[in-house]
User: Fold Succinate dehydrogenase cytochrome b556 subunit from Ciceribacter naphthalenivorans.
Amino acid sequence: MQRPQSRPTSPHLTIWRWQVWAISSITHRITGIGLYIVGIGMFTWYLMAAAMGPNSYATFVSFAGGWLGQLILVGLTWSLFQHMSSGIRHFFMDVGKGYGRTASSRSAAATFICSLAITAVFWSYIWIR
Assistant:
């Protein structure tokens, strides 16, 4: 039996585009993995530096206070708030709320807006202080 030369494709593949609820779902998974890997790494480094003495702790504080450390910490904070906002969205969906097309899209967009706003307020407070 011979295989056909060109395989049929779904007509929807050419018109399909990302929806905000799909991006929210994928982002929820990615932020969970990122929080686990990067968060555990930073926290372990912090604990080890504190236990090893003042020189090690000063090295950690120097890194965390630098631009790369601040970028990582802001990213971790945004990941935390995004993951938390998306988790709250899923709690509402678990009880049957927000399954409509517009409600689902709005709540997914709200997770991004809320996480960015809370991160901005959080770090504004930290940097102003």
Observations:
- The chain has a mean pLDDT of 91.
- Residues 20-128 form a domain with the 3 helical TM bundles of succinate and fumarate reductases fold (CATH 1.20.1300.10).
- The two ends are 74 Å apart (CA to CA).
- The chain has one domain: 20-128.
